[in-house]
Specification:
single chain; alpha/beta; FAD/NAD(P)-binding domain; nine-stranded mixed β-sheet; eight-stranded mixed β-sheet; 11 helices; globular; oxidoreductase activity; Glycine/D-amino acid oxidase
């Protein structure tokens, strides 16, 4: 059995990613057509679209390219929303929902097409994603979700036990949706690949350049840092879970949750044949969601919800180990080599938000666990709007920034949310077992 020792507190992706792009040093004042704050997947994909259209672009990051969840997520491409097309229509209106649904149906293929077109070496595999129900109630919800998206044209299959047990190598679930277009990437490698592509198009990349202040002066937006100022007609804010007080209210419109993950040692061929055979990816319906996929070296990446920047706090290591063996008991005795975390932005409706709070200012954030697929959609969307696209032609609606009235209290209790959600998950699983026994 696993001896309980903690693996190295280091992101696997930083060890296996290709070399980082060489960036510029900001010293003084520079002018561009567009300045992008945030060097993650959203900002870089926006920069590529803008540069391809002939705009001069700068991308600035307070740390380094891919520092945030873009370089530390689980790397799974989960190309579907938690809401049905009908629910999206009720929320946004029919025309807007139709644009969003069309974009959603193509988002995974669009991402993997970008990877091939740009020649990015990021371990990309599109082998499908299993969305597994942890209780019968959750299965009923997935059944409705799958039927609604099938009707809209999504290639989704229903898979039940015992076939499901063989397909994912786990008896922890008896019902799942198989999303044909799902897959995974090495997220930091993808982010660096986007950065290399952006730089090849003339985009200037500035690291260790935290944006301290934004102000409008002489018809331009000026973004000040400790070592200089970037001026532009338009500014794109793409900071997601690391959003700060740069723009009023934006930080208080999302909750910065944490995703934590562990990487095993490379699995033997025998274990690979019994754990996620076919190198598919999976995620379940728990509140404190479990997810898993392989990397290029046949390590299993397994993750769940964490409490804060320290993976081990509030029982994080224990939840990872317990969850791993709950889903894949055949991995007992397998060593765990790495653990890490990434901060994600969660919105109240679990949908990304596109904002235009002032002329020339755009913001896109709040992927709520769908970042690998949807950051590219948002990045292109932000760029198109900056280039003059009409609001009615965009996949995401432009909405006002709405601050959460409970934001301050919620941020203080975020460290307790992961263990609380885990307790609720255990309670629902126990209740489901009792109901199965007496039904």
């Amino acid at each position: 059995m696993y001896d309980g020792s903690h693996p190295k507190d280091q992101a696997l992706w930083s060890v296996t990613a290709p070399a980082a792009v060489q960036t510029d040093v900001l010293d003084g004042d520079c002018g561009f057509d567009v300045v992008i704050v945030g060097g993650g997947l959203t900002g870089l994909r926006a920069a590529i679209t803008l540069a391809e259209a002939g705009s001069s672009v700068a991308v600035m990051d307070s740390r380094h390219i891919g520092y945030g969840a873009s370089g530390r997520s689980g790397g799974q491409c989960n190309p579907i929303w938690r809401a049905t097309p009908e629910e999206l229509a009720a929320k946004y209106g029919q025309a807007q929902a139709e644009r969003l649904v069309r974009t959603t149906l193509s988002c995974a293929d669009d991402l993997f097409d970008d990877i091939r077109r740009f020649g990015i070496d990021c371990g990309a595999e599109q082998n499908g994603w299993y969305q597994a129900a942890h209780t019968r109630k959750a299965a009923a919800g997935l059944r409705r979700l799958g039927a609604a998206w099938q009707k809209a044209g999504a290639p989704i299959d229903v898979v039940k036990a015992p076939d499901l047990h063989e397909r994912i190598g786990s008896k922890a679930y008896d019902f799942a949706l198989r999303h044909e277009k799902g897959g995974f990437v090495q997220p930091l490698a993808l982010t660096r690949g986007f950065a290399h592509r952006a730089k090849s198009l003339g985009v200037r990349l500035f690291e260790n350049a935290p944006a301290r202040q934004m102000e409008r002066r002489a018809g331009l937006w000026r973004v000040s840092t400790d070592r200089g100022t970037l001026s532009a007609e338009k500014v794109v804010l793409a900071t997601n879970g690391y959003t700060d007080a740069l723009w009023p209210g934006l930080r208080r419109s999302i909750l910065p949750m944490v995703s934590i993950a562990v990487a095993t040692s490379p699995l033997s061929p025998e274990l690979q044949a019994s754990v996620l055979p076919g190198r598919v990816t999976f995620a379940d319906t728990r509140l404190a969601i479990y997810f898993g996929r392989y990397d290029a070296d046949n390590r299993l990446i397994f993750g769940c919800v964490g409490s804060n920047e320290s993976v081990g706090s509030f029982g994080g290591h224990r939840r990872l180990r317990s969850g791993l063996l709950t889903v894949f008991p055949q991995l007992a005795g397998t060593s765990l080599d790495y653990t890490w975390m990434g901060r994600i932005a969660v919105t109240p409706d679990l949908m990304p938000h596109l904002h235009e709070p002032a002329p020339g200012v755009l913001a896109g954030l709040g992927y709520s666990g769908r970042g690998i697929a949807m950051t590219s959609v948002m990045g292109r969307c932000l760029a198109q709007r900056a280039l003059g696209a009409k609001v009615d032609d965009l996949p995401f609606p432009v909405s006002p920034i709405e601050t959460l009235s409970f934001h301050g209290v919620a941020r203080n209790f975020i460290p307790l949310m992961a263990p609380a959600m885990s307790m609720l998950d255990r309670a629902t699983v126990f209740q489901d077992r009792v109901m199965r026994r007496f039904s």
